[in-house]
Amino acid sequence: MGDEKMEKSQIGRNDPCSCGSGKKYKKCCLITNGKKNEEEIKNIGKLPLYKTLITDSKGSKVVMISRERSDGNIAFVSILIDEWKMGLKDCFGSYNTPKSMLMREINSDHLPFIEGNFEECKKLIKRGVLIAEEIGTKIPEEFEGFRKIIGDLDNVELTGSLYKCFECGEGDLPEEVIKVIKKTTIEDMKRGICGKEGEIVLHAICDACKEKGNESEDVWDPWGDDREI
């Protein structure tokens, strides 16, 4: 029995689900894992926060929000947000995973996480949703499955432009620039090249950053073009 539990805990999210459904784990039991305790799942957004993390990067960010369950395990959601084009782009998580497995993900060299402010992370997630809805990006079904972990987004207030300055991440952009970003993104999506080699890369910065000369050429793609999500 112990070996069977170990095998299930080590299954990859793109591997066939061990339940025999024929689906990938991320499309099957990864979403429903831990739902035996329906009352705790129903109130998952009220559980104490364990860690709120964000990647220290520009353009594309990964936000991870985790909560501690009554049994000592963790419920977490990890969200990829393309701030400068597609908005909320990808998501995965679990309602019931050991802390050790979560820490391995956090401590991996692939995603350089730093501590994030919970309310600011919620704003980033909501803006990612609004961008995706505006552009027509398909919201991942995993996000709908795990959004309870984040908590209520309806009361999160956003101000200013839909897209923000690529450099500082906070400055507003003129409406004419927003139109160009939206048009370019939609065209790249139709051509199937968003997030891939050959896409049009736009680095729009606010007036304040222009005055300070704070313009960078760096672009960081946290999950890479060839990683299956």
What would your notes on this structure say?
The chain has 229 residues and is an alpha+beta fold. 33% of the residues lie in helices and 17% in strands. It has helices at residues 2-9, 29-32, 38-42, 99-106, 118-135, 141-150, 175-191, 207-212; strands spanning 49-55, 60-68, 74-82, 87-97, 113-115. Strands 4-3-2-1-5 form a 5-stranded antiparallel β-sheet. The longest helix has 18 residues, at 118-135.
Helix/strand class = alpha+beta
Order of helices and strands: HHHEEEEHEHHHH
The number of strands is 5
Beta-strand content: 15-25%
> What average pLDDT do the residues reach?
80
Low-confidence stretches: 1-9, 218-229
Which value, in Å, is the CA radius of gyration?
Answer: 19 Å
With strands numbered from the N-terminus, the spatial order across the biggest sheet is 4-3-2-1-5
What coarse outline follows from CA principal-axis ratios?
globular
For the record, give the distance between the C-alpha atoms at the N and C termini, rounded to a whole number: 30 Å
Helix segment tally: 8
* Biggest sheet record: 5 strands, antiparallel
Helix content: 25-40%
Present the secondary structure layout.
Layout lengths: L1 H8 L19 H4 L5 H5 L6 E7 L4 E9 L5 E9 L4 E11 L1 H8 L6 E3 L2 H18 L5 H10 L24 H17 L15 H6 L17
